[in-house]
Structure formats: C-alpha cells, structure tokens
Amino acid sequence: MFEHCSLCFRVRMTAALKRLHLQETVVLDDDTDTLVKLVGKRQIPILMKDDGQPMLESMDMVRHIDGIGEPVLTGPERPEISAWADVTANQTARLTWPRYPLLGLPEFATAAAHDHYIMRKRKVLGDLVAHRANTQDYLRELAPRLDELDDLIESPQAVSGRLSLDDIRVLPLLRSAAVVKGLQFPQKVRDYFETMMTRIGYQPLPAV
Ligand SMILES: N[C@@H](CCC(=O)N[C@@H](CS)C(=O)NCC(=O)O)C(=O)O
Description:
Blueprint: H1 6-17, H2 32-39, E1 47-48, E2 54-55, H3 58-66, H4 79-96, H5 111-125, H6 128-133, H7 135-152, H8 165-177, H9 187-200
Antiparallel strand pairs: 1-2
The structure holds glutathione.
Glutathione is lined by residues 5, 7, 42-45, 57-58.
C-alpha cells in the first residue's frame, strides 16, 4: 500500500471497522519490482490473504474482509453516493496529488521515490506546483460537491444510515480532501468525517 492512497484506505478502514488485524506494508513509490513480483504488474493496493493468494481490487478486498466473521457493511447503498464519489474523486485529484509528496509519507522516503511520484503524476496532471497555485479556484469549484454530500449524509455514523459500502466509497475521499489546508467541510460532512475517523482509530493526514 501507499499511505496516501484512498483505495488502500478502503481496505484499512474495513479491517479497522471489523477490529481485524491487517498487516500493512508501505512500499516506496519507485518499488515497482515488489509489486510485479507479487501480482505481475504495478498496482496498489494488494491484499495477500492468509492463504498466500493476492487480491487486486480494493472493493473485492473490502468484501473479503467484511465476510470474515459477522459482516458490518450491511446497510443500504445509494446510487447517488456512488455517483458523488466518482465525480469527486476526479475533481479532488488536482488538489490532493500535488500535496501528498509534501506530507513526509513513507512511500516518499527516498529522493528517488519522491521524484518517481512527481514524474508519473506530472504526466497525468501537468505541473503539480501550478496546481497548488490554483488551490483557491479548485476549492471554490469543490464547495458545491461538498454541499451535495452534506445533503446526502443521513447520520454521522454512516453516510446512508447504516454502515455499508457507501461509507467505503466516501470516507477515504474525505480523508484525502482533508490534506488541503483551508478546506472547510460543511457541518454534517465534518461531523461524519470526525466520527468515522475516531471510530476506526485513524488520525487524518497532515494538511498543507
Ligand atoms: N480498481 C483498482 C484500481 C487500483 C488503482 O488504480 N491503483 C492505483 C493507485 S490508487 C495504482 O495502482 N496506480 C499505479 C501506480 O501507482 O503507479 C482498485 O480499486 O483496487
């Protein structure tokens, strides 16, 4: 996993909700070899099951972990939440990707790993510094999205009323968005974020 990766956080939060131990290994951003050795390609997250078999899709990993013992993600799922998550993940990338390498995260612990990330993200998004300079514009554009979520949240304990895959879709995106210093969550979004992070026992990432 990478510490900054929201898809990895889906898996981590599921294990935490289930009070199951998940042995986490953060790889350096340029450590493609380890990933290729495990699954034949560069992809994150990878879950190595207890039987030694790897899994590659984060939602499959979530379902697998939730299926151990009594499931907890049994509440309703709403198409509006999936749609919100799809749009928001695209919209927040230009705010979050340029910030991750500033947070002192373990996947960027060497200069080579750090530069590897910068180079590969620059290919997708363009100049990361220029994106950081546009922060205020991007935050203005994101505000209606957060208001939309505020209207959709049914409870601080579960976005759709009872814990479900909807929480797995939403919470990791909020954790990522919260790396933007100055980003204000609307009241219900803030309550939901704080309640859920406390429940799973994770601190937010630093904000810059
Ligand atoms: N559908 C996969 C997508 C996984 C994925 O896109 N992972 C990204 C990281 S967020 C990745 O491996 N990117 C390649 C890279 O980091 O070089 C899942 O949900 O697990």
